[in-house]
Amino acid sequence: MSQLSPHTSTVVTAPSSLFSDMKPAPINGGLRDKDYWIWCPTVLSDNSGTYHMFASRWPHGCSFSPHWLTNSEVIHATSTTPEGPYQFEQVILPPRGNQFWDGCMTHNPTVRRAKDGTWLLFYTGTCYEGERPTVAKPAQNQDPGCISNEKTHDTRIIQARKNQRIGLATAPCPYGPWTRSEVPIVSPRPGRWDAFMATNPAPCLMPDDSVLLIYKSAKDQLGRLHLGALRADHYTGPYYRVSEEPILEFDNGGHIEDPFIWREDGRFRMLIKDMTGSISGCERGGIEGESEDGITWQLTRRGYNREIQWSDGSKTLQNFVERPSLILDTQGKPSHFCAATAIGSDLVQGITESWNMVIPLG
User: Fold this and answer.
1) How far apart are CA 61 and CA 206, in angstroms?
2) Whole-number Å distance between alpha carbons of 65 and 250
3) Region for 346 from its dihedrals, namely left if φ exceeds 0, alpha if ψ lies in -120 to 50, beta otherwise
């Protein structure tokens, strides 16, 4: 395939969106766990009445951040309804040793299913030197081994960030067994805009099992976040970049993350998170976009925001609504909005509770 030029995005142009008729969020839906931080929902039905959520979790005994970078693991949970509540089933991508590229942490799962029924889980993994932070029991009266919020120079955090790569795990069914990537399918490129990391995999699986994959990266630790694009003729790879530059650029310095991509009515569609609100006017809110080829995008409208109407009649402004995804019906139309959410502080270091919610649309 020939190289395509990057596109300078347009601004949000329309007020309506697929979230215009979003129903109240079930107060006891989604996935929660009193012992774990919960994040990164992705849901797929097995067409027999069971919904399978894959998510990230890490123990409450250490703070939300920075321990998502060091302790996250991908899990599997199930429900008989799309809204949940979901019940934990198993850890599917546990730590496996820092001799592996994804041996210390797994995060950002996105699930798809191939035409032969194979379950595909795209994810972020990383590794770092040193001991994994652990949570000691209070009765032991000892240092729990967590990383304090002030220790941003901790070498484990620095290594965990820059060693993030994207991989693919496959299984014959959602209960496994899962076979993990021995090597990443997407890695950073030294000296380029995506030199620092490769995270947030957003795959669109086509009917012939080819893939358009959107990912997030930055030039360095302090660089603005951008999205890149790759294709593969088959989900097993290889994956090759179809644009040498980011697929979205903003004149006002805006930066974005957390893409989710699907195909509807012959066009690619995407949700992304506006980090600062400089693009959509809603800080840490969502934007919808569409594209003919998956490379040149137009941002068409403002998407979700952080104000949530709950099924008990209450309304809250969540501190975070992130990692958006959709449940698609049998016609490929969005039926439910999934997102990780958190409360306690607008700073990740101060989050006190997090869970995954699933909200009916339309």
Assistant:
1) 41
2) 28
3) alpha
Q: Rounded to the nearest 5 degrees, what angle is found at the Cα of 10, between the Cα atoms of 7 and 14? A: 140
Q: Do 61 and 144 meet the contact criterion of CB atoms below 8 Å apart?
A: yes
Cα–Cα distance for residue pair 282/276, rounded to 1 Å: 8
CB 109 within 8 A of CB 120: no
Residue pair 44/112 in contact by the 8 Å Cβ criterion: yes
Cβ contact 73:58 at 8 Å = yes
Residue 77 forms beta bridges with which residues?
Answer: 53, 88
334-355: b or e for each residue (b if 16 or more CB lie within 10 Å)? bebbbbbbbeeeeebeebeebb
Which of 274, 217, 298, 232 lies closest to 11 in space, CA to CA?
298
Nearest to 181 by CA among 133, 239, 231, 225: 239
Span 169-198, mean pLDDT? 97
Q: How does pLDDT run across 281-336, given as a tens digit for each residue?
A: 889 999 999 999 999 999 888 899 999 999 999 999 999 999 999 999 988 999 99
